[in-house]
Design brief:
9 helices, globular, 3-stranded mixed beta sheet
């Protein structure tokens, strides 16, 4: 079942199990839901995720991502939950000292968003005092859409490269902003490790099974170990869409590191997880199909 305040979510995206419309900070609603459904494990996805917005309005991010996570943990532990899978982020690492980035890399977030994710990871670790076990999954760049075309990326406002580029290709935008063209990368644009949402879902299922079987707390990177520049991603979208995109080069965004590529060897060896759908062509193809269906109504 899903508990969501629908501030940024969509009720129609909940296709499997019931939906409880409530905020994770509403203790009574969280406890009642856990007890009513006999829930033993919580998958915690709720967060604001815009790096740029977090730089402009940091208290909004600490209030929503940190304080509300603390409230969720309070209620969950009180209701008997002892296992949590947390949606964390590669943003906790900051500027990479080495790439691909391993889990033991120093953690120096560049943005309040990244700091908020790290604070929740630290909170989860401290909650071992209550017998809580957790797995933190540090996403690199989640992308793509459900291969069946039922669920896709639908943010308002949208800030992610692939849906913005696809919207431009489909005629919904006049041009696509490219943030930063002076990075020390092969073509001057930032490099990111994109992982398909289907592969992320598989990682969450593996983490849940691990905890429910009595596994120890751990943190894992979830990525492919392969990076693509912004221009490479745009070129892939242009090929798949069959048309060029009008681009506008603008300044770097605050809090954006030049390169983020995952060392995901730990999750592969521990859970046998593999990024089976994360070739950039498949990511773009599934996202393009979903956005085209949405645009056509």
């Amino acid at each position: 079942m899903v508990l969501d305040n629908l501030a940024l979510g969509h009720a129609e995206a909940v296709k499997w199990g019931p939906l409880v419309v409530a905020d994770i900070a509403e203790r009574a609603a969280v406890e009642e839901t856990i007890r009513a459904h006999g829930i033993r494990l919580v998958l915690h996805f709720a967060a604001f995720t815009s790096v740029a917005e977090s730089v402009a309005d940091p208290l909004k991010y600490f209030r929503n991502n940190v304080a509300k996570s603390q409230a969720l943990l309070d209620a969950s532990i009180a209701a008997g939950v002892r296992s949590v899978v947390f949606s964390s982020s590669a943003a906790i690492y900051g500027l990479p000292e080495r790439t691909p980035i391993p889990e033991d890399h120093p953690r120096h977030p560049l943005s309040p968003y990244g700091r908020s994710k790290l604070m929740v990871e630290e909170m989860l670790a401290a909650c071992s005092a209550y017998g809580l076990h957790h797995v933190s999954l540090r996403y690199f760049n989640a992308a793509g859409a459900d291969p069946e075309g039922e669920i896709g990326e639908d943010h308002h406002p949208e800030t992610h490269l692939i849906p913005l580029a696809i919207e431009t290709a489909l005629g919904g935008r006049d041009c696509l902003d490219v943030f930063g063209t002076d990075y020390a990368t092969p073509d001057g644009t930032a490099i990111r490790d994109f992982v398909h949402v289907s592969d992320l879902a598989a990682a969450h299922l593996a983490a849940a099974r691990h905890l429910l079987a009595g596994g120890a707390s751990a943190s894992f990177n979830v990525g492919t170990g392969r990076g693509h520049t912004v221009r490479q991603v745009i070129s892939t979208i242009e090929r798949e869409a069959g048309r060029p995109l009008k681009l506008r080069e603008v300044a770097r965004r605050a809090g954006d590191p030049p390169v983020l590529v995952a060392d995901s060897s730990a999750i592969k060896s521990t859970f046998g997880w593999q990024p089976r759908h994360s070739a950039i062509e498949e990511i773009v193809r599934t996202a393009l199909r979903w956005h085209a269906q949405k645009a056509s109504g």
